[in-house]
Amino acid sequence: MAGQMRLDEVACHSGGALNWRNPLSLLLAFMLLLAVSSLRAEPVDLGQGWDWQYRWGDSPFTAGVPRWTVEPEAGVGWRSIDFPSNPPGRDGAENVWYRTTLPEGEWRDPVLYIYSVDLIVQAYVDGKMIYQYGRFDQQGRGEFAGWPWHMITLPADSAGKPIYFRVFSNYLDIGLWGEVKVMERTELLRYIIDNSVEGMLVAGFSLLIALLALVFALLNSGRRIFIAVALYSLATAGLALEKTPAHLLLLYKPLLWNYISAISYYLTPMAMALLLEQWFESPVRRLYNLVWKFHLLFAVLAVTLSLIGVMALAHLYPIFDSLFAITLVLLFVPTLKLLHHADGEQKAIVAAYGLLGALLLIDMAVAYGVLPWGRVPVSWGSLVFSLCVVVIALRFYVRAQRELTALNSSLEQQVRERTEALEKLSYEDPLTGLKNRRYFDDVLPREVALARRQQRPLSLLMCDIDNFKQFNDRYGHTAGDEALRLVARKMLETFRQSDIACRYGGEEFVIVMPDASSEDALMRAEALRRAVSAEGIVLDGENLDGVTLSAGIASWPESVADAERLLASADRALYQAKRGGRDRVESVPLAG
Questions:
Q1: What are the backbone angles phi and psi of residue 46, rounded to the nearest 5°?
Q2: Which of 124, 183, 231, 547 is the 20 to 30 A CA-CA neighbour of 516?
Q3: CA pair distance 306, 259, nearest whole angstrom
Q4: Distance of CA 225 to CAs 271, 376, 401, Å?
Q5: C-alpha torsion 472→476→480→481, nearest 10
Q6: pTM above threshold 0.85
Q7: Are strands 95-101 and 162-168 parallel, antiparallel or unpaired?
Q8: Contact status, residue 423 vs residue 186, Cβ threshold 8 Å
């Protein structure tokens, strides 16, 4: 996506009307620069109402590139759709393509967030695959690999370009599901954490209840009810944790998490029937007994069949959902007839069960498209039901609260530590391995302040690849990426470990050089320029033309009196190098 523009770029974008010798023009340019640099794109929702198209079947490939992603925009075979999921006219088809246009925006590190996909997916921009989840075989098919959320890193120049999705599904749904948004990577990670705290707390609380129930089962004669409480609480914890997006940040094993979720889900009606069996007498007790035994048998058979490959886990969900919906009604309706004889605790349990059952049915309706997509607070319904269960063992409540506080503190600390670790990861440019623009913006003020305080020199080098657009146009973006990696590699070989090399944006790079004089910086810049120009680029066995660098240097206190002006001065020097013929290094003249 587009980054911040330099002063000379602002001049170009204003149609050349600015006169740099005119103070008013210079002030106008500075104001334009401030306006451009302050722009921050908000997340863009690509859901309902966005311009989507679909096309049944699978694209032919040429040299590994799907032709549908690079063919002329003739519109052949493409049809409009409100949301990229379950197009009309499937007729048993298992492959479909979707496409849309990525929005414009001033993102620094843009990603595309997709809540879920049925079942496996590839994403393409400019004919290049930028993301894949699951494995496609030669026939465009693949095995179920789980239902994670997807974070797709978007190329820096992808704003306003078409993005294509190749989808395979032999499930009843095919395509994207839930939320589809473009946003900053760090903003998405915060979004994931924010949407996970409640689920983590519910899971932690449920695990604590399960642990206490197992302890009580060992210490008390009424073991059966505590075993039922423990089983239900474990199932609730598994469901809450799997529905918490952050679980994939802790362990990225989507299929494993889906098995945990499936087992928890399949055991939920069994545990509910077990609990109701303890609280209500005949004639419904026999019904409860039959229900929990049936669902125990179903859970064992379903997981076994999935593990041995007879039936995919995804295909078992519709069967279970139908049975579960029937079970919810079957357990609830007979229980209502007993309410006029029930005590306060039993009425509270029935009310909590009714709330949980309603939420589960709504969640099923959302999953199958009967209701529009939205987050259904099933975990909170489970929590309410769990709390009613805890009321039965009220004498142990104080001890449980003490342990819950410690558990919540531990969970919040883990979330904070994980967030900090993810923030650090966001400082690296994935293509070159150098630090990125965000890191540079953070580190430069710190190095300037340190140089001032210790009265040590500080130099800044800004460089970019000459005629990079023409190189890209001639050889393609893959060759352009290789050129960027070449420059990054030569930077790491040429400069000291204490120097900080960053990718500034596009084909521009910056190097912060603490304790480096103007002479030191010039020597290293020349070495870098020679190293880059001397190295050829080989792509797929073909020798391509090499690339050259232009560079600008500013040093404090030798050539720049104000250390805060290093960046602007180095930028001007780079501009002079470009105007002077490229493939050269210019430095700001020594202060007189």
A1: -100, 25
A2: 547
A3: 9
A4: 10, 29, 21
A5: 150
A6: no
A7: antiparallel
A8: yes
